[in-house]
Write a structure and sequence with these properties.
Layout (H helix, E strand, L loop, with lengths): L1 H9 L5 H31 L3 H9 L6 H37 L1
Helix pairs in contact: 1-2, 2-4, 3-4
């Protein structure tokens, strides 16, 4: 019960599901920003897309541990941005439906 009360205080809404959806959306947006910053860093550093980076520096070539690590961090950030976009979209849809109900 303390958890539900905390949620209601942090994100007041007509319905507890709406409160939770708002908190989750804010959390997903923060994570997206973080992953976007990482992806932007690699984009600026290398000046190419992750796919181009892989093709030119990794695939079938001798490469350093740093290059491999950069690629995996970069591609993971890109994938997580897409995942956060899906989650944010789903939550926005849920919140839009809930606002139509009230």
């Amino acid at each position: 019960i303390a958890l539900l009360e905390s949620l209601k205080r942090i994100e007041p809404a007509e319905d507890i599901n709406e409160s939770l959806a708002r908190v989750l959306k804010a959390q997903a947006e923060e994570k997206r920003k973080s992953f976007q910053s990482l992806a932007n860093y690699y984009q600026r550093r290398y000046g190419i897309t992750p796919e181009e980076f892989y093709a030119s520096r990794i695939e079938g070539k001798e490469h350093s541990w740093e290059e491999e690590e950069s690629y995996f961090d970069w591609i993971t950030a890109v994938q997580m941005i897409e995942e956060m976009d899906e989650i944010i979209g789903m939550l926005e849809e849920m919140l839009a439906i809930r606002s139509d109900v009230y």
